[in-house]
What we know:
This protein has helices spanning 9-16, 18-32, 44-55, 63-66, 76-108, 110-123, 132-139, 143-167, 171-179, 184-221, 227-236, 240-268, 270-273.
Amino acid sequence: MSSTFQRPTWKIWAEGAIVPFVLIALWQLIVSMGWVNPKILPSPLAVIERWWQYLMPMEAYDPATMSRFAWIFSGEMLGDAAGSLYRVIVGFAIGTVLALPLGLAMGAMPRVLRLMSPLMQVLRPIPPIAYIPLSILWFGLGNPPAVFLIVIGAFFPVLMNTIAGVLAVDGIYLRAARNLGASRMTIFARVILPAATPYILAGMRIGIGTSFIVVIVSEMIAVNNGLGFRILEAREYFWSDKIIAGMLTIGLIGLTIDIVMNKTNNHLLRWHRGLDH
């Protein structure tokens, strides 16, 4: 077993925090020395302060004394984060449900692969952002066009990895199962699907990351709430600290999602990787 899995978690996190800490310290030094305009690049302390204000609800402050700055203490972040996560979860779920059966069929059935592969290869290079005009024409504004774009963003990573996983199944296992009298359905359920699972989970991890990228872009175009919308709004008012605070929120949510996906993959693939925990 690799020594990485035997080391205390806090040591791994401590080592991973070294480079971000050094970069933040350099960032603070550059701003403190006046080498950049703080309106363009605010200090880390200013960003953290704005991030906290972005998080806290307005009710936590006295409106009589803070009325001039009510927009700061609006507690928008929780609502924006919830809206973005809702769109990601719905779009990712729909994209995965559509991609999995098609990918399994294309990988396991050569005729389906021959029929569908040309169309998939034409559509796959088209970025989800290119569908924005059509999505607005078809669905208008609000959640539907954003979810549609996320579905496209999640669909192809899951599809292509599922196909690759099925095609990568060693022929020895298939021949051994046939020689033992296993039916096609049994071979699919007990040989092909388990062998392709690592590829499928890897595609899902990529797909949910792509979904989060797409939701931010779609919220800047077609939605009037969410983290992407709030960042675009802050740009219009030249609130650079709020822009970076929104970006920080996106990064933290993305990190959390990736950790959850990685832990889930490790748990589901213990048989494959030989992990103890």
